[in-house]
Amino acid sequence: MWESLARVNAVVGGVVWGPVGLALLFGTGCLLTVRTGFFQLRYFGYWMRHTIGAIFLDRNVTAHTDDEAISQFQSLCTALAATIGTGNIVGVAAAILAGGPGAVFWMWGMALLGMMTSYAENVLGICYRRRDAAGRWCGGPMYYLAEGLGGGFGRALAVLFACFCVLASFGMGNMSQINSIAGNLQAVFRVPPVATGIVLALLTGRVILGGLKRVAAVTEAIVPLMALFYLFGALTVVCVHWAAVPAAFAAIFRGAFGLQAAGGGVLGYGMARAISWGFKRGAFSNEAGLGASVLVHCAANVEEPVQQGMWGMFEVFADTMVVCTLTALVVLTSGLVDLDTGAALTGVEGSALVGQAFSTVFGAFGPQFIAVSVLLFAYSTTLGWSHYGTRAVVYLLGECAAAGYKLVFAAMVLVGAVMKLDLAWALSDTFNGLMMLPNLVGVVGLSGVVVRETQAYLKRK
């Protein structure tokens, strides 16, 4: 049965992450970039000041509210909690090993265009959100698909998105993340996976049963800590290996276009693999185009759609251009991979490869550092995705189904800790792609709304 499922998944995954899916992802980013006048580049300083800069200058950004809304900073932390996960460690290493150093270049390209895709998703999310009976904000791709596109087609896309979101929340958002935590804690600290699963299941249930406000409060505390912890370690490794940084960047640009290959066919194949893995791992990491983070951004206490859209741009920038780039440089400057092919020279892969790269500077503490980083990154991802799945279930079945979903979600944490999940990672990629397709159709169809909101904002501000 599992072999049949793997074959079916390979076929479906080949379609959603093949030429059609990649063209839709790339084309949507290009369309929005052009139609908004290259907003992410022309107004780079402006949106940086009004996102990360505003955290220190504008108290309204971090102010908590008495109602069911969360602050702009909490929405960012919850979205980053779901976004910055094992993809930033394991995913980057996997992209380099499978697509060569050139995959990093295409991760950057995907992020540059993905900034505008994420921006558009969040603009639409705020435009089409609404209050439920309890006064809470409800929004996300389901709402702008059903109400923005309208008709039976829009409603069908909304239902498809919600179904795929629920499935992805159990796969990529839960079991895959928890399995990475359990595997690392067992390998480095000898913690039995079942013990990890029980503790995390109980913690997860306690947090998510408290609702979005409790999830946001926890992620508000975890995300800045985990980001500073990992960035400090990664910057230390890169600085120690500073002499190898130029060669690492040269390998990235050379590999992006297959310049190390000989012959037209091999050249094209190498470039295609770099593009495919760069885009796939880029989407897995920053989630631009998937529409998932909109489900939490819509709960922010903000009235201006463009303002929340700019937080979406910063989310992609921080995830890929900062965290993923540092991970890539850690790996490529360590001397543990072939800079022409990306092949590991030590026989280890994934987080173990990154751990070995850290050990070149931190010694035996390197793998321990990565194990703690994976714990923080992956567990925060699980908390963020619990909210995504909850909102999708509520859209499909109503508020009465929320508690049941949360209990099942917490139980799946234990399952994820003790089972082999090679297939689950592949399924996660597929469900991500299946979420992406209806969402991007809606974003393209409603791009005119995004353009009008952007132009109106720029005139006012």
Fold topology:
Blueprint: H1 2-16, H2 19-35, H3 39-42, H4 44-49, H5 52-57, H6 59-62, H7 72-83, H8 90-99, H9 102-128, E1 130-131, E2 137-138, H10 141-149, H11 151-189, H12 193-208, H13 212-240, H14 245-256, H15 264-286, H16 294-297, H17 305-332, H18 350-362, H19 365-397, H20 402-418, H21 422-445, H22 447-460
Antiparallel strand pairs: 1-2
Helix pairs in contact: 1-21, 2-9, 2-21, 7-13, 7-17, 7-19, 8-15, 8-18, 9-10, 9-14, 9-15, 9-17, 10-11, 10-21, 11-12, 11-19, 11-20, 11-21, 12-19, 12-20, 13-17, 13-18, 13-19, 18-19, 19-20
Give the tags.
Na/Ala_symport; mainly alpha; cell membrane; single chain; globular; Amino acid/polyamine transporter I; 461 residues; transmembrane helix; transport; two-stranded antiparallel sheet
Give your account of this protein's structure:
InterPro entries: Na/Ala_symport. With 461 residues, this protein is mainly α. It has one domain: Amino acid/polyamine transporter I. 79% of the residues lie in helices and 1% in strands. The chain contains 22 helices and two strands. Strand 1 and strand 2 form a beta hairpin. The chain is globular. About 2% of the residues have low confidence.
Quick take:
By secondary structure, the protein is mostly helical. It is built from 22 helices and 2 strands. The radius of gyration is 21 Å and the shape is globular.
